[in-house]
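Run log // design_07
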């Protein structure tokens, strides 16, 4: 379930807090640090999801293993840069800004990955997982130059973007260089990827871009994004904030696909990218408390604003918590069949 002919699919994921509250699942370091435990917990979660929502297309009755090297959650790149990673029972891992962020910013250089303990751990985990399961995914959540810079350097890089854009540009260039290095030293090494640039497909996670103006982005951030984009043929942009203020400056990146945040003016984005496939994000808080009719009206509005429907790949909710009731999940996952039938 979740899609109908001529309509995009829908999907929803649940936050660690939801899993902790509903099933007592823990997400502490003991799970993340053990690659087999991490793999088996992922399988268990997909089974539980099937038990609850399999009838509306969520979860898997007999999930195959999905071994990977994401021992730091979405903070792999922060770990590469030397950030402390903190783990919690009911949250995803988080990264602590480098204690000497101001000093690192002044002479930012991409880490030497040949000597990176994080890279060596990833390769070691991959060997263990390949021996156990026959395969291991070497890709990580790369984010993007600005995404990584804010995580690693915090407010120092944001201040530099305005006050010393030349320093910020150099730091972002180093972040982009590190991203390419991890592709080469981790993902290619584990996945056996053909080792040439450009690669067939890649993407850019630009979650913190809303903290800088479009003009500042154009002047100080875009150069590193353009360099990174040049390493790929097809290229997508994930932008979980309001995308429309940046729609015009993003055109320089020639995106092949867009992941459009909830607060975006979707009509504006579609006018700027009339032929670009888009996925549409829905904030979990916006879904909470909605009746079936309200869910249908909301999704119908999204389809109308960002249409045509043939250019919308999926409508998705990330990290839903306990504020989203089970019946609301069911209504969301079945909305396309009702819209398709006119019910």
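design_07 sequence
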């Amino acid at each position: 379930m979740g899609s109908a002919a001529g309509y995009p699919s829908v999907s929803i994921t649940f936050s660690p807090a939801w899993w902790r509250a509903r099933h007592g699942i823990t997400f502490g370091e003991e799970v993340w640090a053990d690659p087999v435990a991490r793999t088996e917990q992922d399988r268990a979660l997909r089974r539980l999801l099937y038990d609850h929502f399999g009838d509306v297309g969520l979860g898997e009755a007999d999930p195959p293993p999905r071994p990977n090297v994401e021992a730091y959650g979405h903070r792999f790149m922060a770990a590469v840069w030397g950030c402390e990673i903190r783990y919690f029972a009911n949250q995803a891992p988080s990264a602590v800004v480098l204690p000497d962020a101001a000093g690192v910013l002044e002479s930012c250089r991409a880490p030497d990955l040949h000597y990176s303990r994080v890279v060596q751990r990833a390769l070691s985990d991959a060997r263990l997982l390949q021996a156990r399961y026959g395969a291991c995914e070497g890709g990580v959540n790369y984010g993007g130059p600005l995404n990584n810079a804010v995580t690693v350097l915090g407010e120092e890089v944001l201040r530099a973007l305005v006050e010393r854009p030349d320093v910020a540009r150099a730091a972002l260039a180093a972040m982009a260089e590190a991203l390419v290095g991890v592709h080469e030293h981790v993902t290619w090494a584990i996945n056996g990827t053909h080792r040439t640039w450009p690669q067939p497909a890649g993407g850019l996670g630009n979650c913190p871009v809303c903290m800088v103006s479009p003009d500042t982005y154009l002047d100080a951030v875009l150069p590193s994004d353009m360099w990174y984009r040049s390493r790929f043929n097809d290229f997508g942009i994930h932008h979980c904030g309001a995308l429309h203020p940046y729609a015009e400056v993003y055109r320089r990146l020639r995106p092949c696909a867009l992941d459009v945040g909830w607060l975006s003016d979707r009509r504006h984005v579609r006018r700027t990218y009339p032929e670009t496939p888009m996925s549409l994000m829905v904030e979990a808080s916006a879904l909470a408390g909605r009746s079936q009719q309200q869910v249908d009206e909301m999704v119908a509005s999204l389809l109308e604003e960002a249409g045509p429907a043939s250019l919308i790949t999926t409508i998705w909710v990330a990290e839903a918590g306990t504020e989203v009731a089970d019946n609301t999940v069911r209504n969301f996952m079945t909305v396309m069949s009702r819209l398709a039938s006119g019910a």
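The beta strands are 9-14, 84-88, 91-96, 199-205, 232-239, 257-260, 278-282, 312-320.
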